[in-house]
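Incident log, support desk, overnight shift.

02:14 A customer reports that sequence design results differ from what the structure should imply. Their input is reproduced verbatim below. On-call engineer (initials T.W.) acknowledged and began investigating.
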């Protein structure tokens, strides 16, 4: 942590307020990741499988889904790697919501370790891409329409993905134990 970093009440390092593009993008992504970790912290299996309203979404499902999203964007798309386990043996065509559906079967420690492992790997792979061609690094896997996103696009998309799901996490956590905030 740099001397100018500010840590909020929940222990999250806030994004830099006046730094370069890379530090700003990575700062916002890590802040969103830390928000999900905060919303899921200290919860048992019952809490991680709780739903609210008409939705079947759970905090455990969010952890497993975002672990998959980290893996798919940084390992698979950006670096062109094949899906490793637990993702590689899933028949995604017949079970496209596998991560959401199976999260209730995983222990809280397993879900958190899976997500943390994918985040750590994503950070390593992002650092490699930044060292190669910076934010202009193109993904090794193109989309079906032939377009290829840059690392810059992937980082902005990941910030959006976490921010959207952190809104879900806010509601789910409040329904579990009343904890509110951002």
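02:41 Re-run completed on a clean worker. Output:
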């Amino acid at each position: 942590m740099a001397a100018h970093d500010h840590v909020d009440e929940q222990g999250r390092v806030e994004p830099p307020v006046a730094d370069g593009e890379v530090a700003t993008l990575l700062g916002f992504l890590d802040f969103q990741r830390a928000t999900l970790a905060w919303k899921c912290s200290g919860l048992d299996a019952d809490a991680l499988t709780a739903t609210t309203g008409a939705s079947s979404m759970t905090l455990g499902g969010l952890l497993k889904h975002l672990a998959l999203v980290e893996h798919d964007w940084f390992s698979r798309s950006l670096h062109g790697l094949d899906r490793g386990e637990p993702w590689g043996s899933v028949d995604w065509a017949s079970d496209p919501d596998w991560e959401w559906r199976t999260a209730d079967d995983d222990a809280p420690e397993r879900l958190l370790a899976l997500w943390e492992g994918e985040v750590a790997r994503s950070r390593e792979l992002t650092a490699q891409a930044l060292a190669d061609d910076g934010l202009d690094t193109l993904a090794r896997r193109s989309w079906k329409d032939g377009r290829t996103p840059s690392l810059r696009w992937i980082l902005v998309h990941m910030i959006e993905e976490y921010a959207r799901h952190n809104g879900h996490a806010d509601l789910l956590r409040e329904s579990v134990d009343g904890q509110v905030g951002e």
